[in-house]
Amino acid sequence: MKEITKIRGELSEILKEINKQKITGAISLKGEKFKFAAWLERGEIKDAKLYSEEVESSNGDALLKLYSFSGITELTVYEIPSDEVLTEILR
């Protein structure tokens, strides 16, 4: 797993950046009141989890809840190259 992008800004702007990430890997969003992690396949969210003081949510519920937050957020994008995974499995 390789960190390829780290961006800090307003959540509404950060959410636009997620769709630009045409990778297979994972993302992490950290705001004042929440943490969100998701699996990406070519820029499309396939699995997600959100943790906040009020709730723990998964998948579609996590995405819906994410849109209820605002404020400064940090996005970290991790790429997981399939060739590295396959090579590691074969070792």
Structural overview:
This protein is an alpha+beta fold. Helix content is 27%, strand content 48%. It contains three helices and six strands. A hairpin with a 3-residue loop joins strand 2 (24-30) and strand 3 (34-41). The longest helix is centred in the C-terminal third of the chain and has 9 residues, at 82-90.
Spell out the key features of this protein.
single chain; 91 residues; alpha+beta; six-stranded antiparallel β-sheet; 3 helices
Question: What is the ordering of alpha helices and beta strands?
Answer: EHEEEEHEH
Oligomer: single chain
- Our count of helices gives 3
Share of residues in helices: 25-40%
Separation, N- and C-terminal Cα atoms: 17 Å
Low confidence ranges = none
Q: Could you tell me the number of beta strands?
A: 6
Report the major sheet. 6 strands, antiparallel
Rounded radius of gyration (Å): 14 Å
Total domains: 1
What overall form do the CA principal axes indicate? globular
Side-by-side strand order of the widest sheet: 1-6-2-3-4-5
- Summed over residues and divided by their number, the pLDDT gives a mean of 90
Describe the structure in brief:
This protein is α+β, with helices and mostly antiparallel strands and about 90 residues long. The chain has helices at about 10-20, 60-65, 80-90; strands spanning about 1-10, 25-30, 35-40, 45-50, 55-60, 70-80.
